[in-house]
Design brief:
Blueprint lengths: L2 H18 L3 H5 L2 H12 L2 H27 L2
Length: 73
C-alpha cells in the first residue's frame, strides 16, 4: 500500500473523530475491515489487482525458499 493512501486514510479517521468525538473503533468498526474498505475506495482497481498479484508471487517465492531450506538446497 502506498504511503499517500495510508496517510489519507489516517487523515480521514482523525478528522472524523476530532469532529464527532467518537473513537475510531466506534466510528469505523474493525480496523482490518476498515482498511480493506479503504483500499477498495482509495486505490484504483487495476493497481490493487497488480499489487495483489505481486504479493502472491512474493508469497510463492517465500514458500519455495522455505522448502529449499528444509530440503537443504
Amino acid at each position: 500500500m502506498d504511503r499517500a493512501v495510508v496517510l489519507q486514510a489516517v487523515k480521514d479517521v482523525t478528522a472524523h473523530c476530532a469532529e464527532t468525538g467518537e473513537s475510531p473503533r466506534t466510528a469505523f468498526g474493525d480496523p482490518d475491515a476498515y482498511a480493506a474498505q479503504t483500499v477498495a475506495r482509495l486505490v484504483p482497481a487495476d493497481r490493487a489487482a497488480r499489487e495483489k498479484r505481486h504479493r502472491a508471487v512474493e508469497g510463492a517465492l517465500d514458500v519455495l525458499g522455505r522448502i529449499g531450506d528444509v530440503a537443504g538446497l
